[in-house]
Amino acid sequence: MVIEPPDKPYSHVEPAGAWITADGSFPDARVQSLFRVPESLPENAFVHYFFASDWNAFIFIGATEAMFTWSD
C-alpha cells in the first residue's frame, strides 16, 4: 500500500472526512504519479488505485485478493 502525501495547497484542509473515489486498475494513462508497480509483486497480483480529492493525491493498493465493502 502506498499513500501519496497531500499536495501542498491541500495539506492544510480541515479534517472533516475524506472524499475518496475508487478509479480503477493501475497502471492507467490518466494517472500522473511517481509510483511504479514493484517488480516483486506476485504474478497473480494486481494494483488498484483510489484518488483522495481532499488531498489531491493517490492511494495505491497491491494484492492478490481483495474485497471492497461500503459501510455507512
Describe this structure in words.
With 72 residues, the chain is mainly beta. The protein has strands at residues 2-3, 20-25, 46-52, 57-63. It has one domain. Helices cover 0% and strands 31% of the residues. It has a 4-stranded antiparallel beta sheet with strand order 1-4-3-2, with no helix packed on it. The model has no long low-confidence stretch (mean pLDDT 79).
Secondary-structure map:
Blueprint: E1 2-3, E2 20-25, E3 46-52, E4 57-63
In short:
The protein has 72 residues and is an all-beta fold. 0% of the residues lie in helices and 31% in strands.
The total count of helices amounts to 0
Spans of at least 5 consecutive residues whose pLDDT stays below 50 are none
Helix content: under 10%
Strand order of the largest sheet: 1-4-3-2
Order of helices and strands: EEEE
DSSP strand tally: 4
Distance between the termini: 24 Å
* Overall tally of domains: 1
Which structural class should the secondary elements be placed in?
A: mainly beta
Q: State the shape.
A: globular
Gyration radius, rounded = 13 Å
Strand-residue proportion: 25-35%
Give the rounded overall mean pLDDT.
79
Q: For the report, how would you describe the main beta sheet?
A: 4 strands, antiparallel
List keywords for this structure.
single chain; 72 residues; mainly beta; four-stranded antiparallel sheet; 0% helix
